[in-house]
Amino acid sequence: MTKSPKTFVAPLDPIEQPLAQARPEFDHGDTVAIEVPLCRDTPPVGFCVHLDARLTLEQSTALRKTAAALDKAQARLASGKRVVGSADAVKYILERLADAAG
After folding, report:
1. What residues are paired with 76 via a beta bridge?
2. pLDDT beyond 50 at 81
3. Rounded average pLDDT over 77-95
4. pTM for this structure?
5. How many H helices and E strands in the chain?
6. How far is Cα 81 from Cα 66, in angstroms, rounded to an integer?
7. Is the pLDDT of residue 11 over 60?
8. Which residues pair with 82 in a beta bridge?
């Protein structure tokens, strides 16, 4: 059954919520909010992108801190896989961006 994008669906009780949909609770003293521009009129890609990047020390530190916090919170990707490393943390961040882009 397909619902229109404007249909409001009440969130499920956390016990009933599917594992892949569950979002961890974070201590808000340990979170940051950033603004990232998104181009909403870009069509979706029809292929998987491989990312191989050399990070600076600052970028590496930020990614390690993010990955450690997500692991500690037992965060999960949409697939249900636990976030346990840097690659998973990048995927988690991109999933949150995709959620926000709608």
Report:
1. 82
2. yes
3. 96
4. 0.70
5. 2, 0
6. 16
7. no
8. 76
